[in-house]
Write a structure and sequence with these properties.
The structure holds two protein chains of two kinds.
Chain A lengths: L1 H27 L8 H10 L5 H14 L6 H13 L14 H6 L2 H29 L1 H16 L2 H15 L20 H38 L2 H9 L3 H38 L4 H10 L3 H29 L1 H10 L1
Helix pairs in contact in A: 1-13, 2-3, 6-9, 6-11, 7-9, 8-9, 8-11, 9-11, 11-12, 11-13, 12-13, 13-14
Chain B lengths: L1 H7 L3 H23 L17 H32 L26 H37 L1 H16 L2 H11 L5 H11 L2 H15 L2 H8 L4 H37 L10 H10 L12 H25 L6
Classes of the chains: A mainly alpha, B mainly alpha.
Chain lengths: 337, 323
């Protein structure tokens, strides 16, 4: 138990350090922008005002409102303090709406779409990967290139193709938005729920297929590795039933794939969130896209911070699970220091 | 090296992937020789269909009609001019505008853009892959070979940047850099995507550090750079090549991702940027498939071939996976 405790403590410590660095980068990088982003808001706010003293006053008010009139290190402390109180600042573009409010109104769409899709894709992908490794031959020769090609298509490119063929040409699914455009979001309304489900199908299908490609490749490789292991040959010599051996192989190949789950949660940011733009899905990806278009810096860094924290938490949980179920992980981690 | 190449080309997967890449490379070198238009110039109407056959037919009919009309008008004009004792210069024929893949939202020729975009995307991928591999290799070799505190320090940094999604840093840096050429984009992608290579190289180097031939070199008093280059690098070369190939593939995907967000390079066509244009000008809902499908296919084909090459190499260098 002592080893496990040490492992948990160490992991927690490292994730705290990582979180600190992530928050620091998130604070620092947008502030490297040459020029002053507040100036453009002030220009808009003052409009036709010509009185220099009045403009100066408005400018100063805005600067202190965004906390830009203090030295950098004070700004950072205030930022960290605010972040811990759930305050991510005010949006430039949708001024004076708080960033946390905007993110709060979109993040559930992303979670609702991505998490189930990744989990389903993970299960199906692993099963298919193990199957191709076990069956080999023609089966493998057909599925391996298929999975490889599937994993090579960027998620948003796949979204384009699906929206065009399945929605626009074949009219099988609605191809954009998360619910019918004439509806108001009201979760108690059965009509709204049906509309949400209807619009959910195509993005979900796309995400699942993308996830299957990557996961099955990883599982296939691990299973082939395990199938060549000595214990499999020994079991065969002992005359143990094939079904049982496959189960051993599957279980052993599965453990590294739990890490793969964390990875795919991390990589969902790179491709899958952007696919939301293609579907006009009102999630985090689309919000970040609009923020970037409007140069809404507080909202951009709010989005990136939320994304980072989500990925950190997912990785942390997976690390803990791996440490709990697989003693080998604890050992190697300790060796690595 | 000769032996290396011979083994590598025995793998069917590697050969197939390699051939596709070579064909794409040939396309982007040869096509611009025949089509010298600037890919970003307006060459036709908005969202014109791919029209090779149509255009040839139309030009035949239209050309004849136009020719006879011109001849009629010309006859009248020449007669008129002849009365005043002047002679008109002979009219030259208009060149035929051919759009193999149609045109996009600004009437730019898709084929010319596709070729130019593929080239830019490949350059970005290669640049990003080279930078990421160099940084990752240096950090991984140092951490793995030196061990001790330096290893602890470097590995910690690597692990931290492994968990912070590189895409997020990519977005933040791209937002902060106001003038983005495709070279800047490549550099930014490369600088944010080295941790995987560093980790792989480190674990390989650690296992090599105490081999007999390395110890022998140490006893002979060879310098550290020499030991690393002569005794360690050759053993991990195949891994580095594989990591490089994967980095190039992911560099191309990263470019496409941030270009989709509008954070990619400016004033140049890249595959990601062209998909972004197609999306923002509603090509999807107007059924203009030629405005995005070629790019999706091109990105997938490049990534697929690179991954296939990687898998072929893996089969050769990782005998345990050889099935």
């Amino acid at each position: 138990m002592k080893g496990l405790q040490k492992y948990l403590l160490k992991k927690t410590g490292w994730y705290l350090v990582t979180l600190f660095i992530a928050v620091f980068l998130n604070f620092m990088l947008p502030r490297l922008i040459p020029g002053n982003p507040v100036a453009s808001i002030v220009a808009e706010a003052t409009g036709t005002l010509t009185d220099a003293a009045a403009i100066k006053k408005i400018y100063d008010t805005y600067m202190s409102m965004f906390g830009l009139d203090k030295p950098m290190w004070q700004q950072f402390l205030i930022y960290v303090n605010n972040v811990f109180h759930g305050n991510l600042g005010l949006s430039f573009y949708q001024f004076p709406r708080p960033v946390s409010d905007i993110i709060g109104s979109c993040i559930h769409w992303t979670l609702m779409l991505q998490l189930p899709a990744i989990l389903v894709g993970w299960f199906v992908g692993n099963a298919l990967g193990a199957l191709t490794a076990y069956r080999k031959g023609v089966f493998d020769r057909v599925f391996f290139p298929l999975f490889l090609f599937l994993s090579a298509i960027p998620a948003f490119g796949f979204a384009y193709v699906n929206v065009y063929f399945l929605s626009n040409q074949l009219k099988l699914f609605p191809g954009s938005l998360a619910y019918s455009f004439e509806m108001l979001p009201n979760w108690a309304n059965p009509g709204f729920l049906l509309s949400v489900l209807d619009h959910y199908r195509l993005p979900f299908l796309t995400m699942v297929l993308v996830a299957i490609g990557g996961q099955s490749l990883g599982m296939r490789e691990m299973s082939i590795y395990e199938l060549n292991a000595d214990y499999v040959k020994y079991s065969r010599l002992l005359g143990i039933k094939d079904k049982k051996i496959v189960w051993y192989v599957f279980r052993n190949a599965m453990l590294p794939q739990i890490n793969g789950l964390a990875l795919s949660l991390g990589s969902m940011i790179g491709g899958n969130l952007i696919a939301e733009i293609v579907f006009s899905y009102p999630g985090l990806g689309t919000t970040m896209f609009t923020a970037i278009r409007n140069q809404d810096f507080p909202l951009i860094s709010g989005c990136t911070l939320i994304i980072t924290v989500t990925v950190l938490i997912a990785n942390f949980v997976v690390d803990i699970i791996c440490g709990l179920i697989d003693p080998r992980v604890r050992m190697t981690q300790q060796e690595e220091g | 090296m000769g032996y290396f190449l011979k083994t590598v080309f025995k793998s069917g997967k590697f050969c197939f992937g390699f051939s596709v890449i070579v064909i794409i490379l040939l396309l982007i070198t040869i096509y611009p020789m025949f089509d010298t238009r600037d890919p970003l110039d307006m060459a036709g109407g908005f969202f014109e269909r791919p029209n090779m056959v149509e255009y040839i037919n139309r030009n035949k009919e239209g050309g004849q009609k136009a020719a006879s009309a011109v001849a009629e008008v010309d006859q009248a004009t020449t007669d008129l001019l002849a009365q005043f004792g002047m002679v008109m210069a002979e009219k030259k024929e208009q060149p035929i505008a051919l759009h193999i893949l149609g045109t996009d939202n600004f009437g730019r020729d898709m084929m010319a853009q596709l070729v130019a975009g593929t080239k830019t995307s490949l350059v970005i991928g290669l640049l990003a892959g080279t930078i990421a591999t160099l940084i990752g290799l240096t950090i991984g070799l140092l951490a793995g070979y030196l061990g001790g505190q330096i290893d602890n320090f470097l590995s910690s940094i690597t692990n931290i940047f492994l968990v912070i999604p590189s895409f997020v840093i990519l977005v933040l840096v791209s937002v902060s850099v106001s003038t983005r050429s495709f070279l800047t984009t490549g550099i930014i992608i490369g600088v944010t995507s080295w941790p995987w290579t560093a980790r792989a190289v480190r674990s390989q180097t650690t296992s090599l550090r105490n081999r007999d031939h390395v110890n022998l070199s140490k006893l002979s008093g060879h310098s550290m750079p020499r030991i690393i280059i002569k005794d360690i690098l050759p053993y991990i070369a195949s891994y580095v090549v594989m990591a490089f190939i994967l980095q190039v593939a992911s560099g191309i995907l990263s470019e496409a991702s941030i270009s989709m967000l509008g954070l990619g390079p400016r004033n140049v066509a890249t595959l990601g940027l062209m998909m972004n244009w197609a999306g923002s000008f509603n090509a999807l809902f107007n059924g203009n498939w030629w405005a995005f499908l070629p790019m999706v296919l091109m990105i997938s084909l490049i990534t697929f071939s690179l991954n296939l090459m990687n898998s072929g190499l893996d089969q050769i260098f990782n005998p345990q996976i050889r099935s």
